[in-house]
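Q: Convert this sequence to structure tokens.
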Amino acid sequence: MDAIKKLFAKKLMDIKAIKLQPNEPFTWASGWKSPIYTDNRKTLGFPEVRSFVKLELCHLIQQYFPEAEAVAGVATGAIAQGALVADELGLPYAYVRPKPKDHGMGNQVEGELTKGTKVIVVEDLISTGGSSLKAVEALRQYGVEVIGMVASFTYGFPVAEQAFKDAGVRLITLSDYNAVIEQAAETGYIAEADKAVLAEWRKDPSVWGV
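A:
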């Protein structure tokens, strides 16, 4: 498994940006029962982790999307990370609202991007992929070329993987659910027996624990 994925998984658990409770599951806003809770915005409060995220996202872009001419962050979770990445790379930056403003200019894309620009999208967390891909569609309608997306973390749901494939968007992430499980088991954060429970949840989270 990629060393960076496991290292970042450890950092997220160390600052409690990720919590695992297979025996006392969380309830998401959607109503889903979940053995994992993720809040990557906590990384902003820890300078060393914040810098790690910025630099490693930049490395992903340089490796997989070297043709990027601008950066777009997805509101609200990735507004800050996107701005940090764009600043480090010296590229233009904009962010995408979940929907157009209901006043003023009615913007959904905030910032200034030249039509036809090759844009890399920065996201915080990928669950089903719905909100992330709505941002991609908004950017395409704005008139730029979305060349891919980088994100801090993904649960790796099959439905999300299919959605990104259908939308023609390549997704590269710093870490993922598998890395968290492996790191958590190695460090004793969870029992070895919990790995099966955690793996089962990802197959169909909408009915898990019901």
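The longest strand covers residues 145-154.
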